[in-house]
Amino acid sequence: MKKIAVILPAYNEEVALGSIILRAQQHAQKIIVVDDGSTDKTSEVAQLAGAEVIKHPTNLGKGAALRSGFEAAKDYDIIVTIDADAQHDPDEIPLLTEPLLKKEADVVNGSRYITGVDENTPAYRRVGQKVLDTATNLSSGLEITDTQSGFRAFSQKSLPYFRFKESGFGVESEMLVDASQAGLKIVEVQIGVRYDVDGSTQNPISHGARVLFHILQDMELKRPLYYFTIPGIVIVLIGASLSLIFLRDYLTGTSISMGPTMVAVMLSLFGTFMMFTGIILDSMSRMLQQNRNQL
């Protein structure tokens, strides 16, 4: 029998945490709650419900909580992560572990959107989700329908590849990028979600902006063609178009200043520099990836 551990990152989740732990215990040998600096009775509730508790003295972020949880569960065959706010159903844990038990995947992502847009998802959430999905998929080279899902399952084989460099909510995207870079097989399964119990303390706009910023930062090295080359091409096209327009105006006497033309030329040169920077970095990234694969 495979040993399964469930990790619940928790920050002030005393209300729903107990029932989640008790239900998750039906599907796993170990429940680990990482109390990320809670100021309520999260730790006490988790202990009473029978979970192992790891307590951070201050709020370090979800990425840091997952790092602690993965370290504590590293000897288990399968690790399941689930949010502690009761939006996910612990009874769906077998849906995520099944592809791992059948050796059909290394990472399983629980998705709310495989069958399309969930009509229960608030519109503002879905717009932000779509932006983050697009950015994450560009960065990772994947086609994941729900990149910000906190309901996932991981084989022990996959554990060494996760950096946990991102301490906050950007860790969801970071883990997908890491898995893709490592060549791990990722599959998605359909899950349900509840929004009537949303206990998030994060402003959705600022939260989304921070996650997007970190995704773009990561893309700088992971996908330089998208980060440098494509914007460079756009800048070159704009600069070249403006150069022709300004030069025409100068030759026809409409404008007697060459200043705008020189600015447009400089814009074209800057765009060309960005293009070649992206190409060079992409070549280096591919070489490093080939070396890692050989090793």
Helix-strand blueprint:
Elements: E1 4-10, H1 14-24, E2 30-36, H2 42-48, E3 52-56, H3 62-72, E4 78-81, H4 93-101, E5 107-111, H5 123-140, E6 152-155, H6 171-181, E7 186-190, H7 204-222, H8 224-251, H9 259-294
Parallel strand pairs: 1-2, 1-4, 2-3, 5-7
Antiparallel strand pairs: 4-6, 5-6
Helix pairs in contact: 1-2, 5-6, 5-7, 6-7, 7-8, 8-9
Q: Could you name the key traits of this structure?
A:
7 strands, 51% helix, 295 residues, single chain, 9 helices, alpha/beta
Describe the structure.
- The relative contact order is 0.11.
- The chain is built from nine helices and seven strands, in the order E-H-E-H-E-H-E-H-E-H-E-H-E-H-H-H.
- The chain has a seven-stranded mixed β-sheet, sandwiched between helices.
- With 295 residues, it is α/β, with parallel strands linked by helices.
- Helix 5 (123-140) packs parallel to helix 7 and helix 7 (204-222) packs across helix 8.
Shape: elongated
The number of helices is: 9
Poorly predicted sequence stretches spanning 5 or more consecutive residues: none
N-to-C terminal Cα separation, in Å?
A: 31 Å
Structural class comes to: alpha/beta
Count of strand segments:
7
Question: Quick recap of the structure?
Answer:
The chain has 9 helices and 7 strands; from the N terminus they run βαβαβαβαβαβαβααα. The model has no long low-confidence stretch (mean pLDDT 85).
